[in-house]
Write a structure and sequence with these properties.
Distance between the termini: 71 Å
Strand content: 15-25%
Largest sheet: 5 strands, mixed
Helix content: 55-70%
Order of helices and strands: HHHHEEHEEHEH
Shape: elongated
Radius of gyration: 23 Å
Structural class: alpha/beta
Length: 166
């Protein structure tokens, strides 16, 4: 009888409709939820181990999402505009650098490079420092460089780091 009571109570805590909805909306979040649920059940009665698995999965999903930035670029006359989408930090700056080098190598008549940060969700200090390094070392001296639409969430340190280009 006690086992039946526990099963009824636990079954009431499981919301299958919500799990299916989460699977449709966000596969990574569904994986974190399912991984946490199944590992908690597998490690029972040591529930904390299952929660640690869930924490590890959440951190892994977060890092995966922030490791990649998409970079759109367009050339109009002698101006190359580069628009990164995502989070700019030290790990994603090389992706922006690679795209800029590809575009600069393919077009010899570039006079201006504009880095448009309007689609960047967050720009931290390490990302700003990396971007400054790329702009000062990789862009030819004959090319004017400017950084526009720096996110409002950027700290003063970020603005100081990019002051030569903003």
């Amino acid at each position: 009888v006690l086992g039946a009571v526990v099963i009824v109570v636990v079954a009431g805590l499981v919301n299958v409709k919500h799990m299916i909805d989460m699977l449709r909306r966000s596969l990574p979040q569904a994986i974190v939820g399912a991984g946490t649920t199944f590992s908690t059940l597998a490690f029972a009665p040591r529930v904390e181990r299952g929660l640690l698995v869930g924490l590890g999965l959440a951190v892994a999903v977060h890092l995966y999402r922030e490791l990649f930035v998409t970079v759109d670029s367009e050339q109009s006359g002698g101006t190359l505009t580069v628009r990164p989408h995502g989070v700019m930090w030290f790990a994603t700056v090389p992706q922006v650098e690679r795209r800029m080098r590809e575009e600069l190598a393919g077009c010899q008549d570039i006079d201006n490079v504009v880095i448009d940060l309007s689609k960047v969700g967050r720009l931290d200090y390490s990302g700003a420092a990396g971007l400054k390094r790329v702009l000062s070392e990789r862009v030819p001296g004959s090319v004017d460089v400017s950084v526009v639409a720096v996110p409002e969430s950027a700290s003063k340190a970020v603005l100081v780091e990019l002051r030569d280009y903003v």
